[in-house]
Amino acid sequence: MNHPFHASGGTAVVVGASLSGLMSALALSHIGMNVTVLERSNGKDRGGAALPVAEGLLRRLMGRDAVGRTLPSGPQAWADVHSALRAIVETDSRIRVRTLERVARVDQDEDAAWAVTEGGEVVTGDVVVGADGHASVVRRHVAPDRPEAMFAGYLIWLGIVDERELAAAPWPAQLAILEERDYCLNAYYLPGADGSQAAGRRRLGFGWYDAGRNDLLRASGAVVGDVVRRTLRADDLTEATYRALMDEAEAIWPDPWREAILHCLARRTVIGTPVGEYMPPRLSHGRVCLVGDAAHVPSPMTGKGFDASAWDAQALAGALEAGRVRGDVGGALRRYESMRLDDARELVSSGYAFSRSFARCGSPARRDASGHR
Ligand SMILES: Cc1cc2nc3c(=O)[nH]c(=O)nc-3n(C[C@H](O)[C@H](O)[C@H](O)COP(=O)(O)OP(=O)(O)OC[C@H]3O[C@@H](n4cnc5c(N)ncnc54)[C@H](O)[C@@H]3O)c2cc1C
Q: Buried-most residue among 191, 226, 312, 346 (CB within 10 A)?
């Protein structure tokens, strides 16, 4: 099973077709690798967070702009970034995305690395890249001594609403960060679904940090022990929880954020994401490496997880391109790790202070003392 990595462009198996996986696939294709991306879901968009897209991101990853496609810079909705990257990937003949393929484990020998799907198929390449998010399966191979991201003690309620569905208001121009009682709110403008930045046609997104619902997270199985398992969706929330959230939003947040939050709660379009954190001890092992949230999970309060994922993709391709001259995949991935590990650790560490103090807000002692809940 010998793969002449140095002679051809080489092959990569990327686990996960979300933002990190797609960006890595584009960067690896750019250096001439043939890439198979395995994604457990059907690849549909999911709602949620907004992300800051750096100017010139595609050019950095692909060495050029995408023909006929754009990825606007500035704050963008997660779903818009995902569908733009997905559309670009689909035009790339060196990348094949296979959906509904859940990877059960990965392994390697001297000559190759491979992912084994739950259906038992073995998909082999010169490298395997774990882009499979905060609960990464690939991480178990790279860092068996520290495989899990840990629950940080709070969740974020996320929602996005069309500006035109809300009453006219004096809209603040920039990102707003509000702290009230034991809560924190990030609220931001996003372009409209048609990309419009014009007032009245934009969307308003929010992330409401809440450390008071850990019982709900545990009872619903969204958090098990110290590990984040999944996001809370409409089916997980009772009428009583919606009522309590609406009462709290009414009491705490000023307009226009209050109206936006109430609008999303009334339509049951809010999701509750438990926050996890992962401090990486390493990013590679032999022919297998990690990128994005598989590699490092900072608190979303840092606002830098996406940007770090883009740098991972770029550094990985740079290291592999240099390593190809010597045909040394392991050395190339060690170089990738040396390029990214310190920054990744610093990023995760930068979210700790917020997480530690915010999570304490939800402790029974704090709530009793404040008397707010
Ligand atoms: C609530 C929240 C708010 C955030 N806010 C910001 C922000 O403001 N700014 C910012 O820069 N970043 C933010 N981030 C982080 C940012 O979204 C991520 O860092 C970035 O999107 C990279 O994610 P990812 O692609 O590595 O992982 P994910 O998006 O988790 O993708 C992992 C992919 O792998 C797939 N997968 C998982 N396991 C398997 C398997 N076994 N087999 C096959 N496929 C698998 C999943 O289905 C998924 O498609 C936020 C994150 C969260 C959760």
A: 312
